[in-house]
Amino acid sequence: MSVLASGTPMCDRPETAEPVPKSALGRAHRLFSCFHYDETRLTLSELSRRSGLPLSTTHRMVTEMVRLGMLDRDRDDRLCIGVNLWRLGLLAGTYGIQRVALPYMQDLYATTGLPIHLAIPQGEQTTVVESLRPLEQRLERPRIGQHDPMHVVGNGMAILAFSDPPLQQRYLARLACTEAEDVRRELARTRTIGYSVSTRRTGPSIAIGAPVLDRGGRPLAAISIIVPPGSAVTPYGHLMRDTAHAVQRMAWDQALV
Fold first, then answer.
1. Angle subtended at Cα 185 by Cα 179 and Cα 191, rounded to the nearest 5 degrees
2. Would you identify the CATH topology of the domain 94-253?
3. Through-space distance between the first and last CA atoms of the chain, rounded to whole angstroms
4. Which architecture does CATH list for 10-89?
5. Measuring CA to CA, which residue among 101, 116, 211 is closest to residue 159?
6. Is 0.90 topped by the overall pTM?
7. Are 143 and 119 in contact (CB under 8 A)?
8. CA proximity to 116, closest of 105, 127, 107
9. Which residue has the higher pLDDT, 36 or 189?
10. Virtual CA dihedral for 246, 249, 255, 257, nearest 10 degrees?
11. Measured at the alpha carbon of residue 12, what is the angle toward residues 10 and 16, in degrees to the nearest 5?
12. pLDDT in tens, 181-234
């Protein structure tokens, strides 16, 4: 799903900044990007308005997508993501690491009762691919599919700390000087202790993340936990580091990397 750096779905904006794509594939992507957690079912007119596509074009494309099982209609004739699109999504490379990590995340959640998240790197952002949290926090950030700049979230800092130096330098060069120095010090500490500690996005709660690395030492993903303000960080840090290492070993054993 296309989102802004803040995690806002592209089609939530009053007017779409990007020009309407000329290709059929680009227009299809524009339509799919209009669905998100808060609104999983949309009418044809809502899809047309949010995507910026003419109603006639939207109707024609939606009819074909329904026929192919990429979209479905509910009893009220609203549209939602179809089973065939979901099935294709399971073939994404992220599904392997998600499948391996989930049992360990469930153990962490059962032990701590605290929010547990799994994120993967995508360019200079992270994308959440799995999330476990208490029921009362089900509507809070982050959500599965959400993008975030690496330096503002715990799992992103864990990923960035173990990324290739050229990527780190490019990333830091885009930050203000003072912030870049702060992030650089945090990255060095993360590499030393094996886990990140961040309050940028979660404050006053604390995000603690640990990387899952491939055989070459590059980050495949990161697991993070959100702990209450004032919590002792070190025990949770060791717990996250040990969990990430267990996921890493299983990923290697299953030849995911």
1. 135
2. Beta-Lactamase (3.30.450)
3. 25
4. Orthogonal Bundle (1.10)
5. 211
6. no
7. no
8. 105
9. 189
10. 90
11. 60
12. 999 999 999 999 999 999 999 999 999 999 999 999 999 999 999 999 999 999
Domain ranges across the chain: 10-89, 94-253
* Residue indicated by tokens 């995508």: 122
Tokens standing for residue 17? 């900044």
